[in-house]
Amino acid sequence: MVISSEQPFAHQAAESGTAPDLQCRILVVDDDTALRRSLPIALAQPGRHFDCCASIAETLRQLEHNSYDLILLDYRLPDGTGLDVLSWLAASQRQEAVVMISGEDAIDAAIGALRAGADDFVRKPYHLAQLQRTVHGALHKTALERANRTMSERLRASERLHRYLVESSPDLIFTLDGEGCFTYINPRIESLLGFRGNQLLKRPFLLLVMPEDQDRMHSLLQDVRNGHSERFEVELRLRRNRLSLDQGLPETVTVALDGLPMPGRGDEGARSPGLYGVARDISDRKRAEEIITHQAYHDQLTGLPNRLLFRDRLELAVTHAQRQNSPLAVMFVDIDRFKLVNDTWGHAAGDTLLRTLAERVSGVLRRGDTLARLGGDEFTILLPDISQPQDAETIARKILDVLAAPFALGNGEFRATVSIGIAIHPRDGHSAEDLSRHADVAMYKVKRSGKNGFRFFDAGLNAHHRQRVSLENDLHKALERQEFELHYQPQISLNHRRAVGMEALLRWNHPTRGMVPPATFVPVAEEMGIIGDISQWVLERACAQLGEWRSAGHDTLRMSLNLSPHDFDHHDLVDKVMAAVTRHHIPPALLEVEITESMMMQDADATATKVRELRSAGLGVAIDDFGTGYSSLSYLQKFPVSCLKIDRSFVRELSASAVNPIISAITGIARGFGLHLVAEGVEQEGQVSVLRSLGCDIMQGYLFARPAPAAEIERWLNTQPLPAAPG
């Protein structure tokens, strides 16, 4: 008869420290029905659950499906004895506690039961208190044994786990005795350093430490031995076993050692701590750190020091030079026309040029000199411990000489030149920043003076450089602040006795400098790359002004304006000009774009294409300052221009008694090509007479009107004095 089917939890109760028979399960085996009913009642306590069986067969069936904390087993049963149940339990390696209950008087029954595995024997008749004590003791013993087995299993599992972790760890794990000798070392030693573990047992750990790290490690072990140290971390280099080294492996391994003192006892009973050690291979990390450090301080393309490392070396050299009262030199080197290489052959060719140039320059420097790449095509050189400034000049000349040979760039040869600026300490500065800046200023002076050379810094260069920087800063804001103005100078036709055109002339009305001439600021704007914005402003303002004058009745007036050579580099030049003409309702024939002879000769094919597009759109194109350049008549055939402008330098030399042959030639060329002709810089009546006699009808100059703002020119247009009619 089954009283309860709940599972036992006696082992949990024992572990938790509560009553040992809390939540336990008891099987009562007896053929006496009264006992099967009374025992559960007599032994009942909270947490105890009872099942009952009347025979061995029923008991075994019950045990096959359930487990119990205690079996109260009657010795005599209808189909056998309780010894049969004990035999089954032993054969099945069951852990149930058994209390045998028997009415047998012979001692042999008790002895047999105990030998067969029973935990206790109770003889009938028995006192209830005696049975209760026996059951309680058996359950308590069962709980303790089960807790002990659980703890032992956990300990064995933990030991297996930790042994597995230690022996399969990628780290080197070891223990040292008080003398610093190995007492244990895991198998990682063989793959890491090439030693077998038994080779190192009882041998000093310091045998593995590289000589340069031994003193440091010896001090740490001594502190551990004296009890002055707790846990420590240190980086060491350990040597590999040379006899087992694979080819290509380095002789040392860098490890991060984590050491923890462990208690020990010496031969005389005094404390002699040993050491737990875990050493992790950080060789790859150290190599990665070295690579990262190298990349942080070196240029990846050339392998040269970069700006940061050069600055560190320069500051150190300046400090040394100040102590020794000795000079040093800083060079700033910039490759001339480097953009041409990238634009012509691509950046791969540019990289090849940079690497090859760095190799050549490095070859002419001394051992203690430093060549660095700042970026792009800029290099710097540090020349410490020079005896005189002429030594820097000698190096500069060697650099220019070594670069004289052409560079093979795959697609062709390129002759590279450089501009070199030199600053000398202490003459040109007492700090790394001043020396670098002054060498840079000197280099830019070489750039503007024709390139391919060197120059020493002087104070005048610095003042000029500061003025240049100030001019650049102001020029950036000039458009925004509306500081630009257009002045206009009339172009007079003697035959028609009136102004037939206006030349728009750009002026910069600086708030503190006053009127800045174009010759001063236009080249700077071209270098800064803002000339395109300025040209667009000139185009818009000139067209707008011409539109206003046309509305006022001057509908045949032409407008001439100058564009920068850089404007012709843009593919949309013609579209921008035509957009302005259309926007202000101006016939294209009334707008004339002026170009120079030098522009014709630079990238002639591309410029000629733009000129043809302008002419096809109906616009006029004039060659300004004609005759001052080196163009030939073939250029006039290639460039379909509409007008030639005689330069003022030729007009200035005219006199009534002598005719300038150049002007005669220019007027003949204009007639031969069917071009308009305009003479600039006319200031005297005699010049008018000669130009008129040569067939030049349109003139401009101070004799007729000076360049002036639009308001003044408009008043002039309404009241202009008519020139004398041709004789």
TrEMBL record:
Residue ranges annotated for the Response regulatory domain, each copy included: 25-139
GO molecular function, a single term: cyclic-guanylate-specific phosphodiesterase activity
Organism, scientific name: Pseudothauera lacus
CDD domains named among the record's database cross-references: EAL (cd01948), GGDEF (cd01949), PAS (cd00130), REC (cd00156)
Cross-referenced InterPro entries: Biofilm_reg_signaling, CheY-like_superfamily, EAL_dom, EAL_sf, GGDEF_dom, Nucleotide_cyclase, PAS, PAS-like_dom_sf
SMART domains: EAL, GGDEF, PAS, REC
Protein name in UniProt: Two-component system response regulator
Catalytic activity from the UniProt record: 3',3'-c-di-GMP + H2O = 5'-phosphoguanylyl(3'->5')guanosine + H(+)
Alphabetized PROSITE patterns for the sequence: EAL, GGDEF, PAS, RESPONSE_REGULATORY
GO BP terms, alphabetized: cellular response to nitric oxide; phosphorelay signal transduction system; regulation of DNA-templated transcription
Domain EAL: from-to ranges: 468-721
